[in-house]
Design a protein that fits this description.
Two copies of one chain form a homodimer.
Chain A: E1 26-29, H1 33-45, E2 53-58, H2 68-74, E3 85-90, E4 93-98, H3 101-114, E5 122-126, E6 132-136, E7 156-157, E8 160-161, H4 166-177, E9 182-186, H5 191-202, E10 207-213, H6 221-237, E11 243-247, H7 253-262, E12 268-272, H8 289-297, E13 308-313, H9 328-331, E14 336-342, H10 358-365, H11 374-377, E15 380-384, H12 400-411, H13 417-428, H14 433-444, H15 446-453, E16 491-492, H16 512-517, H17 527-530, E17 533-534, H18 545-570, H19 576-608
Parallel strand pairs in A: 1-2, 2-4, 6-9, 6-15, 9-10, 10-11, 11-12, 12-13, 13-14, 14-15
Antiparallel strand pairs in A: 3-4, 3-5, 7-8, 16-17
Helix pairs in contact in A: 1-3, 6-7, 10-12, 12-13, 13-14, 14-18, 15-18, 18-19
């Protein structure tokens, strides 16, 4: 099919954290496609006059480097792996070494990120924590983005892939710079379009997977043949396709059907466990959506083909601002799985409200299940992307930090999210250390601020149905989604105990099961997720549940007001376009926080009849 | 512009209440366009062999009739007016007489409706209660219908008037048969299209008005010139255009600007008072949407041009299943006004739930303000149409009865709505008297049944936002629409008293103001509209507010269940297409009633903690 030129405005967009860095001249001792990418990068980023001699070198040619002895000493016994790299500096010699092109590419971006700070001799070895670090894209072929808050799709428009891939290439570069090596998006009918997209991502070491819907009968031989043919066509077009990311469908049988279709090509099936049909009747207290993924998939553990990877949301519900860890992550023994996080702020402010998610993801990744932490158990980390075709990619300029932190944490789940913020801010804005420190300080706790002014104590939802922005305390209370708080005149929360509730706590290993089962050992921030308690129940923090709700809602609003004041004090140090992007969003966030504060407080005041202990204004 | 032929399925549709009636041969002693319509009608409907000699005759030719002496005696001193008629039977002579074509047309349809029952000598004189009986249409030019629940538009498709006007002509005939003499719909750019539509309606004595949006500055001379030109073009295309129906805008000045533009052509401005901007903050207890129309328009009374007619919703809010009468209807002294009713069931079940609105409209029309009842004060009655291009016009076959009753009540506001149901059912279905009686009995109280299972005691809303179908008790509680119930652990309702509330009761004349001001004299069914009362407040019916809520919600559901049982017992006497239309709608209604019952009961149980006195199941 002839390529139709779609008339569009010239593509202009933000460089994010790759706008300012420069390197000295460097030599590349490697060959192949990724080495070409590195050489092109170096032409683009060189510009520092510096007496350091920089070399990027694959291990097989390492003896050519003057740093060979130091490098050899530092080399791990099991090597660097396909994606690892080392950086060694001695005096005016600086070496980046890797086993192959991908490691070297990540080494190059490491250099680009840290070169300015590399002022003394040092040796560093980096290897990614998990082999697959993916961004999933919910872009429709029409050009809209489901749960997207940053404009339209950068991939699709009017049913097909955009003609000009300049922006896709810039995106691939941004992703590679933070260690992402996989993306997924919808399958188009035109496989040459798919091949064009895959070629752009391939330049940056990123494998493309295809999102597919699967709801057919996997025992139907026609279905089997159709998927065998589809796999064949896809791999004809893109021989290094990562695989299929599957939404919904029959488990096990469907996953295995697809796995067998992809196995000959080395492809994987990423089977999203959120496809579980969680519809229920609000009157039915025996059914508990939180149980669903575990109840459905644990019995199937061991029955999947080797190239099936289950994609498991971090929590048992749906990307709320606070959830307990999904027990599935602790109990799958024989099935590979990916941890799924949501970079797009569906329930966390939709890139209107500032909500830096790094600290939340770090908690999840380091969660002790017990035994190995989550990051050590998972075989992949998948994020649902927050980018769109807004000039700044993410709607809110500061939401770029979430994309950055996601990639960096997927590479290194032990990274400190506040250090990542500093890193991101320094690479993104040209500004003095004090201003950067202030910006980071404004952003650092914004996730907990968002938690404070929205649904309290882990109970979740209380959000406007459909849009998922703004408060509606009872909005999901009588829905079919299993998303209830059960607030009445005496108390609030969901009894998920084994003793008297849905039994969900029993899905956890000890000591977590006992800790969550008991309201006096359950962490405060999850209390209402696991327990229905009276309003005068005293939390471990010494406050009653009701007073805590009031306090956090007043506090959350006040924190947003303070964030704005602090922002306004430094705003004139930013470019006008940045200011004009951020300031009105802060104002929208303050209005949103006010609605949340007042609706939540009034709702509970009307139910409980108990006034605020500090006498602050709660509307009747 | 050339008329483009839009390819469509062949138009097939229900004949509603005009499918079965037949007349004997008749002679027409009149001339003119409407006489031609009557003659064509008679060719279509003749078919009864009967020895009665029927004549339709205008007064100027009455001496030709053998019934001249009887007719002359019965003729009112002030004549029959443009639309009135008389029917006289003596022996085998039957005369329909009118002053002109329109009266004769209505006389013809009277004859068609009642001929079978005219078995003895009698004399009847009919004149309509109000001179303008209009159906307003919220059809978009694209072909969708706002608040329509019966398919797409019968007028528009893809931005213009449909090519084949067969169905529009059938609609005009249906409307004329129930006495409607005006319709309104959106202005199209192509005035020849408008002229085509108007010509079809003109055949049935129906004047077309145009719905327009007006939000411009009426003091701007450019705006004035633009509307003068628009009026000129519209009247060039349709010299007998009724006028403009105006949505939103500056009052008085805007209305008068348009009135002056239309005056040279004899056109009217129908100014919808619901255009009042009622947005407010839920925290603000001083603002009351119920007050808005009165507060805005009473100060302007007397300042409108003579050809301005205010269109006033029957209640102060928005077509809820129960509202008090709008005080504007009682207090406008110097301005002509129309009473606006909603035939389309926006808040009353959306033509999924059976809700025969005749009894409700009759209550409104006969409401004692005091002094003249509403129907005697109003200069026009406007209904928002419930028709669309579904084969049966109204989605639910039985919702045809609402269209029928609207027209008949607009003509005769004293008509008994249950007699109208009998009339409609007899004309619509070929069935025995017992079956008809049973159908009428199922339908007769369906409005009160709907009221019972939805928002209680006049408080309104509690409906799913946006869609307005199904329960969401708190759905509008924190909205900007002034639609609150203020339920808390102690009580529920809106204090609109002068003593302690918004003062809305003070907009009524005495004795209504005092009756509504006092919770012990306020009618039960409006108590929560006017008062915030504790749950144990005892109603005039002897029950507490809370027990009344529980009782009516159990009762409402049970009534729907009984309706279905009764329907199923007679369903096989109806044609399959009718059964297959009605039965699943009843089942949907039962599911809806169950949701309403359970969500409302649970909501109030959670708040109050008070169980049902009869121990019925209320979910926690």
């Amino acid at each position: 099919m002839a390529v139709e030129v779609v008339s569009r405005d010239p593509i202009t967009f933000d460089q994010c954290w790759l706008g300012t860095q420069r390197l000295p001249e460097a030599t590349v001792h490697a060959s192949g496609a990724l080495a070409q990418t590195i050489k092109a990068e170096l032409r683009q980023t060189r510009g520092i006059r510096n007496d350091v001699e920089v070399a990027l070198c694959i291990l097989s040619r390492l003896r050519e480097s003057p740093l060979w002895p130091e490098a050899e000493t530092a080399l791990p016994a099991d090597g660097l792996g396909d994606e690892g790299f080392m950086v060694v500096r001695r005096g005016n010699q600086l070496l980046v070494a890797a086993e192959g092109g991908r490691g070297l590419l990540y080494g190059y971006f490491y250099l680009l990120r840290y070169f300015e700070w590399m002022t003394a001799d040092f040796t560093v070895v980096e290897r990614p924590a998990v082999p697959i670090r993916m961004l999933d894209h919910w872009d429709d072929l029409t050009g809209s983005v489901q749960r997207g808050y940053s404009g339209g799709s950068i991939f699709f428009r009017d049913g097909r892939v955009v003609t000009d891939l300049t922006r896709v290439r810039a995106y691939a570069r941004l992703l590679a710079s933070i260690g992402i090596n996989a993306v997924a998006f919808k399958l188009t009918d035109d496989l040459s379009d798919l091949a064009r997209l895959a070629a752009v991502f391939r330049e940056y070491g990123i494998a493309v997977s295809l999102s597919v819907e699967f709801a057919a009968d996997p025992s139907d031989q026609q279905v089997v043949r159709r998927w065998l043919a589809a796999a064949g066509r896809a791999y004809d077009a893109v021989p290094d396709l990562g695989g299929f990311v599957v939404h919904a469908g029959h488990p096990a049988e469907g996953a295995n059907l697809l796995a067998r279709a992809l196995a000959p090509y080395g492809g994987k099936v990423f089977w999203r466990c959120s496809g579980v049909d969680g519809r229920q009747d609000w009157r039915d207290r025996r059914t508990d959506r939180a149980r669903a993924a575990y109840d459905q998939f644990i019995p199937l553990d061991g029955r999947f083909e080797k190239n099936v990877m289950l994609v498991v949301k971090h929590g048992p519900m749906d990307f709320q601002v606070r959830e307990p860890i999904s027990p599935l992550l602790g109990e799958l023994q024989e099935t590979a799985f990916a941890l799924e996080l949501q970079v797009t702020q569906e329930y966390t402010g939709q890139q209107k409200d500032l909500c830096y998610l790094g600290p939340w993801w770090r908690e999840i990744l380091q969660f002790d299940l017990p035994g190995p932490v989550v990051a050590e158990r998972t075989d992949a980390i998948v994020g649902i992307s927050n980018v769109g075709d807004d000039p700044n990619w993410t709607g809110h300029k500061l939401a770029q930090s979430n994309l950055y932190a996601f990639g960096r944490l997927a590479w290194d789940p032990a990274a400190d999210p506040i250090s990542l913020l500093h890193e991101w801010a320094a690479a993104t804005f040209a500004m003095d250390d004090r201003t950067r420190g202030e910006l980071v300080s404004i952003m650092a706790d914004s996730w907990r601020t968002y938690e404070r002014y929205t649904a309290p104590l882990g109970v979740g939802f209380m959000v406007a149905p459909t849009t998922h922005y703004g408060p509606n305390v009872n909005g999901y209370e009588y829905s079919a989604w299993g998303t209830y708080h059960f607030a009445d005149r005496h108390g609030v929360g969901v009894d998920r105990t084994v003793a008297t509730g849905s039994g969900f706590t029993g899905q956890y290993p000890e000591p977590l099961a006992s800790r969550y089962e008991n309201p006096y050992t359950c962490p405060d921030e999850l209390l209402l997720f696991f327990h229905h308690v009276p309003y005068d129940h005293v939390l471990q923090n010494g406050r009653t549940v009701l007073q805590h709700i009031y306090d956090t809602h007043f506090q959350g609003y006040d924190e947003v007001a303070a964030m704005i004041d602090r922002w306004k004090a430094i705003a004139d140090r930013f470019e006008p376009a940045v200011r004009e992007n951020i300031t009105p969003r802060f104002e929208a966030q303050l209005a949103n926080a006010r609605e949340w504060r007042d609706q939540v407080n009034t709702f509970f005041y009307r139910l409980s009849g108990i006034p605020d202990a500090e006498g602050r204004l709660i509307y009747r």
